[in-house]
């Protein structure tokens, strides 16, 4: 604003005087209050008419007492008097002075005064926007946290830069009016420029750097300014300092103890960022005081054992025994390394005397993969507790700097943070900024100034802080907790620190970072520096400090002795999501059974009627949707159902039994193929919607159906976390097309398929993956069933004992349930990972329907659907048995009918692929003892089900006869993009499937 050319003017008819400013071809009005002078409020200027009466009134007031007006007016009148003709000043009226040469001279002086004030206001804003760039953030003093040593030219770090604002050294002791957008003055409205700069540097350029001016909410910006600009606000009592010291002692001495006892073991210690422990505890304390009683956390491996010990408060002997190489596993599964395990613990928060539950979610080495999982688990707990504002349950996510900047799932998680069906009402993110990623210098690891810049996408404030200043860290953590409680939005704390021993304790960082680690070797420990500071202040004595250290060392030694008594590793002690009262003493679900799942006729009819109607009066639906609902009504009348109606009945029956159902994914409300329409939209009223399934029963469970952002990695992780919270819920994610799970493969590989083995983590997420070769090209044809089958723990060479009890146990112990597109209704098991390959063209296929009798009382899931046609009446005469799964059955059935081979060929459908139904397949093989066995699939030979089912079939027949393959030849791509080629391939393997001589010698 200093470039404005200032003209004089006053409002027509009196009122406040103003200065007329011109910039960029526009004219603006800047109000000038008699007492305060120019403010920052501007708006377009109307026609200006000079009104000298107002000026005369101010002039008279000024003559009575110069302090009656602002100093800019004081200067104005002084200059008028000084430059006027002799004797004019005695007239006590300014009319003659406001003319000609005298007025012109006075306006020049007034213009300079106003420009100087505007310049100071601009200077204040510059510090608020860019002060963090020159903050002293690196505890090593050798790097710049923003990767740039350049000082922004608009920040005053040397006197010579005052000229940028049209000021000079003589202005340093002049007083200037402070704008409304700063709190550096306290109760004072003016300050000398020297003091203004000093206070700005103290607020924004010390050990804390604040990024917040990009936030487009004035109240939020003012809130942050007040927290960092108010004089003396960052104060701690002696008791608070002693608590901070005690927590820092525990954090530091825990790492020292592990280093002494297991010097050759990896532990990913916290050395260089020991302040993380008191930081987390401060956040939890402040949040507990605000009403939070459940905190769900996720973090990478660095510092994890310390967090478990000193934040979650896991028994130290349980941690120490993990280092014993002779410790035997008591639980089934492979387990995981100690710094990946999670924990769930309910305890008293000593600072608030309130109960608090802390949960640290287990995670793999894929560092940020746990982020959406934590968010989903947090959302679920909030949902089931009715905590719509996040006042009881919250999440804390810890990150490494390189991963936070480099991992795309971080952005996906942030992008979910304010979506209605995904928000957790604010997450506190704590970045352990090592200023290096393993061996990679940040200057070649990211393009943004800070690793935290991704958080700006959701207008989250970012607090950078020097981790070697414990009190600054604690203050920032307080503010972050208050921000989250006040605004229910994400906030980021960037702990700028270092790694004392490299990536892990076995690594040699000097290979690649010699200069950094020379400084680190010289770096004084933060505990030593802080303890000396408090001793010098008289807060503690040296003896008290040494006693506190000895006290914690003794606790560690006693726990170490106790840990030697542990001979067995119990992974169940490390559960991050226990399901109380759900398991038997043997660790199996109490409700796990294969009981019938059928429904009474009236229930089927009731759900069908709601599914084909609009429960709200005066609701205007689209004509196309109206036709779909009429079609459903016709199906209900004929006691028939297609996939969409079967899904509706499945969900509705669970809701009736009090089981919450949540379906999410891209476009799931309508359905990618426009078959579902679970959310109806009023065609006349914006945002008016109807979810008929929430109008089924008076006391039903709620049904959540929500379109997600265009994300797979983040959303699948979120839904996985949601499913962890409650066994009595059905959580489903549907892909737009089956291959969309490709970009969520990390969640599938590291959590869904292996989570039970690694962490004894139970989960009931269901993945719905549209699958089928329909000539639509390689991208949206295959959901890659071979990948899922490869991840199952089923043994193809062993036929399990067939009994109900064994079957139930086997179903529980399998890591994935894998079914084809039939039997959708009865197979939704809320507490088991389930992969369902759903149809596309079969959604409207006239033969892909079932009757209500298939869902009647006494019915249950069919793992295998036998042939019920003419071939089954004379099994001894059948020449060929074709086993298959999925859509290809309908093509095979059509071809068999056209060739009139109903008595010669039996077609059997496997509906449950894994666990493989050995018992039922054995019955069918024995039934058709004289027939040759075929496995037919539409997928290419190197894909699909063949490699999985072939050894299973050979085990069934004891390798006494072959199982022939019929399908497409091996290929690199999942499907052809040429329609003609697709049809030729289909014709070829149909001919092979029914050519009786095709496999004869």
Task: Give a topology summary.
Blueprint: E1 5-10, E2 17-23, E3 26-33, E4 37-44, H1 52-64, H2 71-83, H3 100-130, E5 175-177, E6 190-192, H4 193-204, E7 208-211, H5 218-229, H6 238-261, H7 276-289, E8 294-298, H8 304-310, H9 316-320, E9 328-329, E10 343-349, E11 354-360, H10 370-384, E12 393-400, H11 401-406, H12 408-416, E13 427-433, E14 462-466, H13 470-487, E15 491-496, H14 514-522, H15 526-537, H16 542-563, E16 568-569, H17 601-611, H18 623-637, E17 640-641, H19 643-656, E18 660-665, E19 680-681, E20 689-690, E21 703-707, H20 713-724, E22 729-734, H21 745-752, H22 755-759, E23 765-770, H23 785-791, H24 804-813, E24 817-819, E25 834-838, E26 850-851, E27 864-865, H25 870-873, E28 880-884, H26 888-898, E29 905-910, E30 912-914, H27 918-927, E31 932-940, H28 946-956, E32 963-968, H29 979-994
Question: Explain this structure to me?
Answer:
- The protein is α/β, with parallel strands linked by helices and 1001 residues long.
- Helix 26 links the parallel strand 28 and strand 29.
- The relative contact order is 0.07.
- It folds into five domains: 5-127, no CATH class; 129-217, no CATH class; 238-574, Thiamin diphosphate (ThDP)-binding fold, Pyr/PP domains (Rossmann fold), CATH 3.40.50.970; 601-840, Rossmann fold, CATH 3.40.50.12470; 864-994, Multifunctional 2-oxoglutarate metabolism enzyme, C-terminal domain (Rossmann fold, 3-Layer(aba) Sandwich).
- The model is unreliable at 1-52, 85-93 and 95-103 (pLDDT under 50).
- It contains 29 helices and 32 strands.
- Helix 6 runs antiparallel to helix 15 and helix 20 runs parallel beside helix 21.
- The strands form eight sheets. An eight-stranded mixed sheet has the order 7-14-15-13-12-8-11-10, sandwiched between helices. It has a seven-stranded mixed sheet with strand order 21-18-22-23-25-24-30, sandwiched between helices. Strands 27-29-28-31-32 form a five-stranded mixed sheet, sandwiched between helices.
């Amino acid at each position: 604003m200093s470039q404005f050319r200032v003209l004089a003017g006053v409002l027509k008819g009196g009122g406040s005087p103003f200065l007329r400013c011109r910039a960029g071809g526009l004219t603006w009005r800047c109000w000038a209050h008699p007492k305060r002078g120019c403010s920052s409020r501007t708006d377009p200027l109307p026609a200006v008419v000079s009104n000298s009466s107002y000026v005369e009134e101010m002039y008279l007031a000024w003559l009575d007492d110069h302090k009656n007006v602002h100093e800019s007016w004081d200067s104005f009148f002084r200059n008028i008097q000084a430059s006027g003709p002799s004797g004019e000043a005695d007239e006590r009226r300014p009319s003659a002075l406001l003319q000609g040469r005298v007025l012109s001279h006075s306006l020049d002086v007034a213009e300079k005064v106003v420009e100087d004030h505007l310049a100071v206001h601009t200077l204040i804003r510059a510090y608020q926007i860019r002060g963090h760039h020159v903050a002293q953030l690196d505890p090593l003093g050798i790097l710049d946290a923003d990767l740039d040593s350049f000082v922004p030219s608009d920040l005053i770090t040397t006197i010579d830069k005052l000229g940028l604002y049209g000021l000079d050294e003589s202005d340093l002791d002049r007083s200037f009016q402070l704008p409304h957008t700063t709190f550096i003055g306290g109760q004072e409205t003016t300050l000398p420029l020297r003091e203004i700069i000093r206070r700005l540097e103290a607020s924004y350029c010390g050990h804390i750097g604040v990024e917040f001016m990009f936030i487009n909410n004035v109240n939020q910006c003012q809130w942050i300014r007040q927290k960092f600009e108010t004089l003396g606000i960052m104060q701690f009592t002696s008791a608070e300092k002693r608590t901070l010291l005690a927590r820092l002692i525990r954090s530091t001495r825990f790492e020292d103890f592990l280093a002494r006892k297991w010097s050759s073991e990896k532990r990913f210690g916290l050395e260089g960022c020991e302040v993380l422990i008191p930081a987390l505890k401060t956040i939890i304390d402040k949040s507990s005081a605000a009403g939070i009683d459940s905190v769900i956390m996720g973090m990478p491996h660095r510092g994890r054992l310390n967090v478990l010990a000193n934040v979650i408060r896991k028994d130290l002997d349980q941690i120490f025994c993990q280092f014993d190489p002779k410790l035997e596993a008591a639980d089934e599964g492979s387990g995981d390394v100690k710094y990946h395990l999670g924990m769930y613990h309910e305890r008293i928060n000593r600072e608030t005397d309130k109960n608090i539950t802390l949960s640290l979610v287990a995670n793999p080495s894929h560092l940020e993969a746990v982020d959406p999982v934590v968010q989903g688990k947090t959302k679920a707990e909030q949902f089931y507790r009715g905590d719509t504002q996040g006042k009881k349950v919250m999440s804390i996510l810890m990150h490494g700097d390189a991963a936070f900047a480099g991992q795309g799932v971080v952005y996906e998680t942030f992008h979910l943070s304010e979506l209605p069906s995904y928000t957790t009402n604010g997450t506190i993110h704590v970045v352990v900024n090592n200023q290096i990623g393993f061996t990679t210098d940040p200057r070649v690891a990211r393009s943004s100034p800070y690793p935290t810049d991704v958080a700006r996408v959701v207008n989250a404030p970012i607090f950078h802080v020097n981790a070697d200043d414990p009190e600054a860290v604690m203050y920032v953590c307080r503010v972050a907790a208050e921000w989250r409680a006040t605004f229910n939005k994400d906030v980021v704390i960037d702990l700028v620190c270092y790694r004392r021993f490299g990536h892990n304790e076995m690594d040699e960082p000097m290979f690649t970072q010699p200069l950094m680690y020379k400084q680190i070797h010289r770096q004084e420990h933060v505990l030593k520096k802080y303890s000396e500071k408090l001793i010098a202040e008289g807060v503690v004595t040296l003896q008290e400090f040494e006693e506190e250290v000895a006290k914690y060392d003794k606790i560690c030694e006693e726990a170490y002795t106790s840990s030697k008594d542990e001979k067995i590793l119990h992974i169940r002690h490390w559960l991050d999501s226990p399901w109380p009262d759900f398991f038997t003493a043997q660790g199996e679900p109490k409700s796990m059974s294969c009981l019938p799942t059928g429904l009474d006729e009236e229930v089927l009819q009731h759900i069908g009627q709601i599914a084909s109607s609009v429960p709200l009066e005066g609701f205007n639906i689209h004509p196309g949707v109206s036709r779909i609902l009429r079609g459903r009504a016709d199906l209900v009348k004929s006691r028939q159902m297609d996939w969409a109606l079967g899904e509706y009945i499945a969900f509705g029956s669970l809701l009736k039994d009090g089981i919450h159902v949540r379906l999410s994914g891209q476009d799931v409300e309508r359905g990618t193929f426009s078959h579902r329409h679970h959310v109806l939209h009023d065609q006349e009223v914006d945002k008016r919607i109807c979810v008929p399934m929430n109008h089924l029963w008076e006391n039903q469970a709620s049904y959540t159906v929500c379109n997600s952002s265009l994300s797979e990695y983040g959303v699948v992780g979120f839904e996985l976390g949601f499913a962890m919270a409650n066994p009595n819920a059905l959580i489903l994610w549907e892909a737009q097309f089956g291959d969309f799970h490709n970009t969520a493969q990390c969640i599938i590989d590291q959590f869904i398929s292996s989570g039970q083995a690694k962490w004894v983590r139970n989960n009931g997420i269901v993945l719905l993956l549209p699958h089928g070769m329909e000539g639509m090209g390689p991208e949206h044809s295959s959901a890659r069933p071979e990948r899922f089958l490869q991840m199952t723990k089923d043994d193809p060479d062993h036929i399990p004992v067939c009994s109900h009890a064994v079957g139930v146990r086997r179903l529980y112990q399998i890591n994935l349930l894998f079914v084809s597109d039939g039997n959708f209704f009865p197979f939704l098991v809320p507490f088991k990972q389930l992969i369902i390959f759903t149809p596309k063209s079969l959604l409207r296929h006239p033969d892909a329907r079932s009757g209500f009798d298939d869902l009647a009382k006494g019915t249950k899931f069919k793992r295998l659907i036998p042939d019920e046609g003419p071939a089954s009446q004379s099994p001894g005469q059948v020449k060929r048995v074709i086993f298959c799964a999925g859509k290809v059955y309908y093509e095979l059935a059509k071809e068999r009918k056209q060739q009139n081979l109903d008595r010669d060929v039996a077609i059997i459908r496997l509906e449950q692929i894994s666990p493989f139904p050995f018992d039922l397949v054995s019955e069918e093989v024995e039934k058709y003892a004289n027939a040759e066995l075929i496995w037919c699939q539409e997928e290419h030979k190197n894909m699909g089900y063949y490699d999985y089912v072939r050894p299973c079939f050979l085990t069934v027949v004891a390798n006494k006869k072959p199982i022939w393959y019929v399908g497409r030849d091996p290929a690199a791509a999942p499907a052809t993009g040429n329609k003609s080629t697709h049809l030729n391939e289909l014709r070829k393997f149909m001919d092979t499937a029914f050519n009786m001589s095709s496999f004869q010698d």
